[in-house]
């Protein structure tokens, strides 16, 4: 297992070309946030916008529209009960699942609408729904972001067994699409076609609801913006940035809130851009 270092940030975070525009930095569609869990998509979107995605749209329960706009006038919104086919197919990156509750219909529709070349990040409730209903995965480029219980549901590997990486490797082999799997925990592990990476930073000051929603949003923002960089590297840089910011905040804070991590992203990224 290879330990991640800040080197990955220099590899991925590049200065922007003068002749670029918002379209250059990718279109992200975030799908999630039932009436109960609107906060999850707000945290997805705060992370995606602050990490530099060019255009972000949130497809969610309309009850969340005002709250989203009051946090982030930069985002567009749409009703996730409407037909999402066009919005899905017009996006570079789709993030589905944070706070999606029991909306199996939306997961099924999204999986049927995505193209093979698109990047689909599957988080939170969407992972649980796939596991419960044994849904087949789509052919798109896939990143899964389970916490340990979500990975247990998906793979059958118990939380205890997950400390033996061989079990996780075997479980990943069963996926036809060989997704990038971000197995979140203290010292998160990332399983990829290039190898397994361990995050040596981060800590329990990150144990607040919404921390994973924020990570998923950063992964989406990085993937959309650094579209020409290998997806494994952009994912690793997102995972590293998320906890590196938390570590910096933890010098002076007892807990590090998800929304504070997103707010710190633009200044953090500026230090590594080259
Ligand atoms: N503001 C919002 O709108 C928020 C919305 N959110 C959204 O809510 C949705 C549900 O997500 P969820 O993770 O809360 O519930 P679920 O998948 O049932 O897992 C709970 C079970 O798993 C266990 N468990 C958890 N973590 C574990 C770990 N690391 N390692 C091992 N076990 C772990 C846990 O154990 P326990 O806490 O009981 O010890 C319990 O048994 C999801 O879509 C998310 O995006 C949240 O982000 C919060 C903020
Ligand atoms: N003790 C810890 N040490 C390091 N990171 C942690 C710790 N507890 C939680 N985290 C991080 O917080 C995030 C939690 O993700 P998740 O459970 O999906 O949150 P949520 O769904 O509430 O947004 C992961 O990135 C995980 O690595
Ligand atoms: Mg989560």
From TrEMBL:
Query: Which organism is this entry from?
Result: Leuconostoc kimchii (strain IMSNU 11154 / KCTC 2386 / IH25)
The family database entries (PROSITE patterns) matched by this protein are listed as: YJEF_C_2, YJEF_C_3
Q: Is NADP among this UniProt entry's keywords?
A: yes
Identify the domain of life.
Bacteria
Show the InterPro entries listed in the entry: Carbohydrate_kinase_pred_CS (IPR017953), CARKD (IPR000631), Ribokinase-like (IPR029056)
The record's EC number reads 4.2.1.136
Q: Which CDD domains does this UniProt record tie to the protein?
A: YXKO-related (cd01171)
Q: What does this protein do?
A: Catalyzes the dehydration of the S-form of NAD(P)HX at the expense of ADP, which is converted to AMP. Together with NAD(P)HX epimerase, which catalyzes the epimerization of the S- and R-forms, the enzyme allows the repair of both epimers of NAD(P)HX, a damaged form of NAD(P)H that is a result of enzymatic or heat-dependent hydration.
The Swiss-Prot or TrEMBL record lists the needed cofactor(s) as: Mg(2+)
Task: Please provide, alphabetically and separated by semicolons, the GO molecular function terms listed in this UniProt record.
Answer: ADP-dependent NAD(P)H-hydrate dehydratase activity; ATP binding; NAD(P)HX epimerase activity
Pfam families (alphabetical):
Carb_kinase
Task: Cite a single GO BP annotation.
Answer: nicotinamide nucleotide metabolic process
For the ligand (AMP), the binding residues are: 184-188, 212
Cite the entry's keywords alphabetically.
Answer: ATP-binding, Lyase, NAD, NADP, Nucleotide-binding
Q: Which family does it belong to?
A: Belongs to the NnrD/CARKD family.
The protein here is known as ADP-dependent (S)-NAD(P)H-hydrate dehydratase
């Amino acid at each position: 297992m290879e330990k991640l270092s800040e080197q990955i940030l220099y590899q991925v975070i590049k200065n922007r070309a003068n002749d670029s525009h918002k379209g250059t930095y990718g279109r992200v569609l975030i799908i999630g946030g039932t009436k109960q869990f609107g906060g999850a998509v707000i945290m997805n979107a705060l992370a995606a916008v602050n990490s530099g995605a060019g255009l972000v749209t949130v497809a969610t329960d309309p009850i969340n529209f005002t709250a989203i706009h009051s946090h982030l006038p930069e985002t567009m919104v749409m009703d996730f009960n409407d037909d999402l086919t066009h919005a899905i197919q017009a996006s570079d990156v789709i993030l589905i699942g944070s706070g999606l509750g029991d909306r199996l219909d939306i997961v099924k529709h999204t999986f049927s609408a995505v193209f093979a070349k698109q990047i689909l990040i599957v988080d939170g409730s969407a992972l649980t729904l796939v596991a419960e209903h044994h849904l087949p995965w789509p052919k798109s480029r896939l990143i899964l972001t389970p916490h340990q219980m979500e990975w247990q549901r998906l793979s059958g590997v118990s939380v205890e067994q997950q400390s033996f990486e061989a079990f996780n490797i075997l479980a990943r082999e069963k996926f036809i699409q060989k997704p990038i799997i971000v197995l979140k925990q203290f010292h998160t592990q990332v399983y990829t076609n290039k190898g397994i990476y361990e995050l040596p930073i981060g800590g329990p000051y990150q144990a607040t609801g919404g921390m994973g929603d924020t990570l998923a949003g950063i992964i989406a923002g990085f993937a959309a913006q650094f579209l020409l960089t290998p997806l494994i590297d952009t994912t690793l840089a997102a995972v590293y940035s998320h906890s590196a910011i938390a570590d910096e905040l933890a010098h002076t804070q007892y807990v590090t809130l998800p929304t504070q991590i997103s707010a710190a992203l633009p200044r953090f990224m500026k230090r590594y851009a080259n």
